[in-house]
């Protein structure tokens, strides 16, 4: 059989393929050749074949049949074989494959090999993809190599130990003795990897952390030497001596100083020194400054140092390099809670970053801006943020809108400003606001009593311009329903619309394609409410009756009920449709829950949960709305299996006021359809307010005479 | 570091180093998504992006994207330096490296990476030491009988037969057609950025041809 083609030859050939199909054909042909070569147990060319397989694997083709061959290569005595074998193992095998455990013995032998490059290969592979079982088996070998004087092996063993600890944390203890004099090494490679090892140990175990705190002075010394020493060509990067090591030491110092005053104090000086002396013209210097800032902010540093750190971040914000600006914004976001005032000083720069072209920077700047809003800067900040909302990408709009609402709620200088701001958000990003903002807004508007006229007028005008943004339309129609009388009464500053125009608009919402079913529900209810506020009751009656046969079930149900309201319960209509009282802001019973759980039903019908606290003298009970609610529900009964055993028909109560001091009663007739002759039981729940506090009363009637249900 | 990917501007993978255990399927999915995301970035955007719960640091050198996924507590700026250091190592080893070098000598690119990083962390911060180690290891490959020779712990020895010979370099920004040879510049400065596309011919050590 001819010798298998060389690797470079194969690569060259495959690259000449003009189509995916052609490439696939070549690959398949070569794979077949390789497979037969594997079958023949050809030692000479195994290495070449596996290398070719690895290339094909990188192109995306399956190469699992080469896994065992990698193991054979690793077991070979030739260095070339081992090199490719270990590479193949790292690429093709991982801890999920059963085969990988077969490597353990080979790695063990190679860890004790006479040639350090072979040992290096084994350490590298173990440290890259060793499974927990392998790590357990080989931890002892790694620990041995951690104590060797050969720095080439020592540094690799340190990182291998890191991997072992990550896989099997219980083994951490066994590496402790070997760490004794790791930091006294001169070799930078060993120093660097030792610091990584120490960091890993300290992060995982509080005991280790306290044990290694004593290393702080030594670390400070090493760092100082790095900064103060002259030019060292071997480790120099743009004039800075071994920045990688500096950064790692700073990170370890951060962990050691975190909740410890003494350690923090011991490192104060060196941190100040690094912060002030590091050259900032290149990325490498800024990388060190960045790490320094993170350390300063995390340990118990003195305030002067913290201010220094924030100022460094402020300078970063002005840097031309957008990477630097990005990390500055990220870090400021982390510190804004604890060092709020210091960060405030850089507010204008942060706000400028809102206009940056980069998406990540814009997002950071937005989050940071919201964190910086307070009572003093609300007007200015909101202007910038609203401008941002106008022009930003859709992915930001929802978060920005929510942020604006939150900030406005917390710091609004006046109710009018608040409502204007909300209007602005609804008109510019109306389709992106979250679901819960509609009921929240409705609650806000209800509670701003003096602004009702202004609000409804502005919302009406917005509706005339654009009916596509559903949250805006929903809030507007709700307001028009509630405050329509104010809208047409001349209380507004501008020319007021006449009743028919308003009804035109609302009816337009009902028929428009742009309106969702939820919106239509809002519109219909609004029209209904206007029946007690406007004089064109007949028109409203007509609209309502038309929708009694709507295909949309929700709309139909509402229309039918409203029709009934007109016909049989007309005396209840004014009470039912009167102004909503001021709602309390409790989360559980608030409109939020009602709107979400029921989906389409809007607050006023389900006001049963909120007996209004304002106007009731003691002992008067508003049972009215509860009965109305019951009327819409098919009642359940004592039998949980068949909840629809009964059908109830509640007739209207004799009166809607229970006189105080037992001077009279209210009676209500309930007609029960009980075809299955189940026993009747009734549970009554009464909620009312007494002297301002809500009261709830439960009673059960179990003694219905048998004749009533048998 | 959780993984490092090198890919071309057309999205072809040139190197993948994974430091976390994932199935082949997951690796392919991640690679596909990430390559798409990074290639969609405009040139003026910053080198960092958030992706799933990782931070991605990427940088483009000529026609290759170097992309690393780091964890939350890692320093993005120093990761950029790590990427740069790796490019410098490749450059020194291959002599003004270009994408073709990495395509045709991918196993060497891996060997260099494995001498520089281990388990996702830098094991050697001196450029010189990494290159020396690679050189010695390459020499080992040359020797059929390496068990007789002991290079253990020995950095000082001079190699008898260099494993790489003459290379020629073109300094065009646009890639010249394969096979074209130009003059070798004598002043490869150490403080470089690998920018324009360069073409180089390397003669290989005998074993892996």
TrEMBL record, chain A:
GO biological process assignments: intracellular protein transport; vesicle-mediated transport
Membrane topology: Peripheral membrane protein
Keyword Protein transport among UniProt keywords: yes
Residue ranges of domain GAE in the record: 588-705
Pfam families: Adaptin_N, Alpha_adaptinC2
Cellular component GO terms held in the UniProt record: AP-1 adaptor complex
Entry keyword set: Cytoplasmic vesicle, Golgi apparatus, Membrane, Protein transport, Transport
Glycosyltransferase as UniProt keyword: no
PROSITE patterns given in the database record: GAE (PS50180)
Location in or out of the cell: Cytoplasmic vesicle membrane; Endomembrane system; Golgi apparatus
Family: Belongs to the adaptor complexes large subunit family.
Protein name in UniProt: AP-1 complex subunit gamma
């Amino acid at each position: 059989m001819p010798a298998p083609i060389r690797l470079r030859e194969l690569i060259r050939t495959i690259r000449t393929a003009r189509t995916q199909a052609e490439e696939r054909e070549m690959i398949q042909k070569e794979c077949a050749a390789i497979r037969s070569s594997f079958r023949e147990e050809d030692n000479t060319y195994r290495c070449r074949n596996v290398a070719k397989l690895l290339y094909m694997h990188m192109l995306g083709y399956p190469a699992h049949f080469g896994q065992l061959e990698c193991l054979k290569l690793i077991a070979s005595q030739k260095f070339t074989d081992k090199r490719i074998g270990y590479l193949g193992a790292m690429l093709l095998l991982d801890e999920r494959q059963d085969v990988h455990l077969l490597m353990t013995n080979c790695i063990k032998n190679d860890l004790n090999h006479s040639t350090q490059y072979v040992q290096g290969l084994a350490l590298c592979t173990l440290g890259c993809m060793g499974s927990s079982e392998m790590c357990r088996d080989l931890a002892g070998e790694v620990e041995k190599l951690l104590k060797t004087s050969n720095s080439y092996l020592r540094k690799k063993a340190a990182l291998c130990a890191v991997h072992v600890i990550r896989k099997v944390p219980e083994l951490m203890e066994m590496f402790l003795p070997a760490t004794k004099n790791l930091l006294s090494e001169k070799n930078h490679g060993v120093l660097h990897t030792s610091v990584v090892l120490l960091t890993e140990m300290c992060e995982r175990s509080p005991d280790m952390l306290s044990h290694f705190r004593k290393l702080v002075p030594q670390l400070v010394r090493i760092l100082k030497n790095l900064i103060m020493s002259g030019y060292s060509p071997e480790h120099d990067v743009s004039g800075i001596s071994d920045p990688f090591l500096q950064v790692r030491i700073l990170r370890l110092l951060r962990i050691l100083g975190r909740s410890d005053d003494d350690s923090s104090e011991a490192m104060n000086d060196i941190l100040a020194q690094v912060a002030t002396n590091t050259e900032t013209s290149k990325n490498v210097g800024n990388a060190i400054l960045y790490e320094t800032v993170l350390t300063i902010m995390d340990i118990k540093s003195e305030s002067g140092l913290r201010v220094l750190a924030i100022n460094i971040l402020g300078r970063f914000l002005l840097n031309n390099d957008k990477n630097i600006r990005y990390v500055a914004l990220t870090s400021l976001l982390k510190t804004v809670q604890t060092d709020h005032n210091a960060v405030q000083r850089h507010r204008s720069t942060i706000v400028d970053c809102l206009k940056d072209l980069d998406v990540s920077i814009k997002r950071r700047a937005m989050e940071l801006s919201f964190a910086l809003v307070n009572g003093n800067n609300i007007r200015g900040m909101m202007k910038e943020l609203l401008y941002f909302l106008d022009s930003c990408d859709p992915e930001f709009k929802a978060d920005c809108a929510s942020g604006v609402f939150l900030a406005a709620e917390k710091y609004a200088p006046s109710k009018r400003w608040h409502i204007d701001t909300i209007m602005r958000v609804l008109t510019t990003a109306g389709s992106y606001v979250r679901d819960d903002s509609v009921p929240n807004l409705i609650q806000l508007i209800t509670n701003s009593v003096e602004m009702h006229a202004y609000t409804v007028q502005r919302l009406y005008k917005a509706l005339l311009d654009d009916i596509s943004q559903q949250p805006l339309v929903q809030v507007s129609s709700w307001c028009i329903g509630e405050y329509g009388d104010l809208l047409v009464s001349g209380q507004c500053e501008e020319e007021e619309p006449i009743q028919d125009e308003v009804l035109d608009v609302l009816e337009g919402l009902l028929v428009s394609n742009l309106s969702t079913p939820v919106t239509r529900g809002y519109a219909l209810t609004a029209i209904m409410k206007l029946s007690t506020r406007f004089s064109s009751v007949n028109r409203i009656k007509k609209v309502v009756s038309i929708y009694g046969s709507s295909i949309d079930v929700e709309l139909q149900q509402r229309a039918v009920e409203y029709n009934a309201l007109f016909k049989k319960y007309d005396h209840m209509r004014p009470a039912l449709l009167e102004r909503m009282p001021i709602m309390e802001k409790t989360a559980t019973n608030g409109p939020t829950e009602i709107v979400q759980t029921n989906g389409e039903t809007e607050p006023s019908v389900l006001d049963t949960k909120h007996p209004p606290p304002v106007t009731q003298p003691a002992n008067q009970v508003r049972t009215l709305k509860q009965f109305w609610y019951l009327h819409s529900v098919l009642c359940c009964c004592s039998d949980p299996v068949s909840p629809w055993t009964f059908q109830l028909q509640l007739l209207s109560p004799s009166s809607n006021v229970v006189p105080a001091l037992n001077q009279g009663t209210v009676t209500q007739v309930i007609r029960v359809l009980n075809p299955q002759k189940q026993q009747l039981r009734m549970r009554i729940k009464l909620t009312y307010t007494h002297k301002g506090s809500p009261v709830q009363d439960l009673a059960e009637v179990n003694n219905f005479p048998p004749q009533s249900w048998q | 570091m959780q993984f490092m990917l090198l890919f071309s501007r057309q999205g072809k993978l040139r190197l993948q180093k994974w430091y976390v255990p994932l199935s082949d399927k997951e690796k392919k999915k991640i690679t596909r998504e990430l390559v798409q995301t990074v290639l969609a970035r405009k040139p003026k955007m910053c080198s960092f992006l958030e992706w799933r719960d990782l931070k991605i640091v990427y940088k483009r050198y000529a026609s290759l994207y170097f992309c690393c996924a780091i964890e939350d507590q890692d320093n993005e700026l120093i990761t950029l330096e790590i990427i740069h250091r790796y490019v410098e190592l490749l450059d020194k080893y291959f002599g003004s490296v270009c994408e073709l070098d990495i395509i045709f000598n991918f196993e060497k690119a891996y060997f260099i990476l494995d001498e520089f990083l281990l388990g996702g962390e830098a094991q050697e911060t001196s450029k010189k030491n990494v290159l020396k180690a690679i050189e010695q290891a390459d020499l080992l490959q040359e020797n059929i009988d390496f068990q007789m020779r002991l290079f253990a712990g020995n950095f000082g020895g001079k190699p008898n037969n260099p494993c790489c010979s003459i290379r020629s370099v073109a300094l065009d920004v646009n890639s010249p057609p394969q096979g074209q040879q130009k003059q070798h510049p004598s002043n490869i400065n150490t403080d470089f950025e690998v920018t324009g596309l360069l073409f180089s011919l390397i003669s290989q050590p005998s074993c892996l041809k």
